[in-house]
Amino acid sequence: MSRQPHEDHEDEDNHDTHDPDRDPDRDTDPRPATPRRLLLTTAALAPLLAALGAPPARAESPDPPPAPVKGGGHRHEPVQPVTTTVADWRPVARALGRPGSMSGDKAYHTRFPRGDLDVVSYGVPVSTGLALGSHVAFVRYADGNVLVMGDLTVTEGELQEVTDVLQAHGIEQTALHKHLLAHSPDVWWTHVHGHGPDPVVLARGLRAALDRTASPPAEPTRFRELPGLDTDGIDAALGMKGANDGGVYKATFARREVIIEGGMALPRGLGAISAFIFQPLGDGKAALNGDVVLVAEEVQKVIKILRAGGIGLVELHNHGLREEPRLFFIHLWAVGDAVALARALRRAVDASNVIAVQRERGTE
């Protein structure tokens, strides 16, 4: 029978190192002698050490050291996106009922502007380009599967039915929130995520959900002036060249890190963009809407920067469920001098790990 830990036998402690029959130069036992009292003490202290966050001491570990982690800190090498063209996505365009465009050479992007909505926030009529657009993006991967991500703009009356339809088609909701502060009528934004081998199946699910909304048919993009907006001053403040996007001025910055979503590497900018949108109000003023993409360590500093620059906070939340590194988005709102607002945004950009991006769009 083995002795229990409380049976302390002084004669079994290895205190006496003198053995007349032992030659220390011929000792062949490779294991170091460990006093039994030390073992008993270690066992007794193990719960205390665990509570303090320190692992109990042990002579050796039978487990091999962990293998190096590949993929920039991720457990497995992520699946990579592949290059596609607009022509590759024609079946998706038919299923969605409108043409899309390439954002870079990997993401196929389709917009669904809510030109049917007349939304007012703090007395400002909100243009479609400022905040009222749904959009989805498709990406094909080296393993043959397709990822779709996007953000749908829905009224409060449409929200629950749209959710039910998306769920029935296997498309996840990864966020539900506001992009505007007090506004009328009530509008919500729901982020969507789908994954599978057939992009047309995913597109049909999205189309079924969008058909539950009053989203109007596709219209040709019209050039609209930016009256009274100092775009050169905005560019100088932000340190990049923005673009007229249907009557609003837009600047975008993408996270520098490779973002991994469910084991898939996202093309730069997909789901990881800081977007700043200026709607001209005349005399150099603008309504500002958009969001800043951050990792946890950047959030509090950027909140302070935005508030010091007179920019209001709308939401702080996640857009995804499984991305690595974990991303947080601060949605923002302000009305004021556009260049002054851009200077405040530049300080927020400098406090986050992003890079300016220029989007080249090509349609069929």
How is this fold's topology laid out?
Blueprint: H1 36-51, H2 90-96, E1 101-103, E2 107-113, E3 119-121, E4 124-126, H3 128-131, E5 133-140, E6 146-155, H4 156-168, E7 172-177, E8 183-184, E9 187-196, H5 199-210, H6 231-238, E10 243-244, E11 249-255, E12 260-261, E13 264-265, E14 273-282, E15 285-294, H7 296-308, E16 312-317, E17 323-324, E18 328-337, H8 338-350, E19 354-357, E20 361-363
Antiparallel strand pairs: 1-2, 1-20, 2-5, 3-4, 3-8, 5-6, 6-9, 7-9, 10-11, 11-14, 11-19, 12-13, 12-17, 14-15, 15-18, 16-18
Helix pairs in contact: 2-5, 4-5, 6-8, 7-8
Report on the structure:
This protein is α+β, with helices and mostly antiparallel strands and about 375 residues long. It has eight helices and 20 strands. The chain has helices at about 35-50, 90-95, 130, 155-170, 200-210, 230-240, 295-310, 340-350; strands spanning about 100-105, 105-115, 120, 125, 135-140, 145-155, 170-175, 185, 185-195, 245, 250-255, 260, 265, 275-280, 285-295, 310-315, 325, 330-335, 355, 360-364. The strands form four sheets. A seven-stranded antiparallel β-sheet has the order 7-9-6-5-2-1-20. Strands 10, 11, 14, 15, 16, 18 and 19 form a seven-stranded antiparallel β-sheet that branches. A hairpin with a 5-residue loop joins strand 5 and strand 6. The protein is globular. Mean pLDDT is about 85; it is low at about 1-75 and about 360-364.
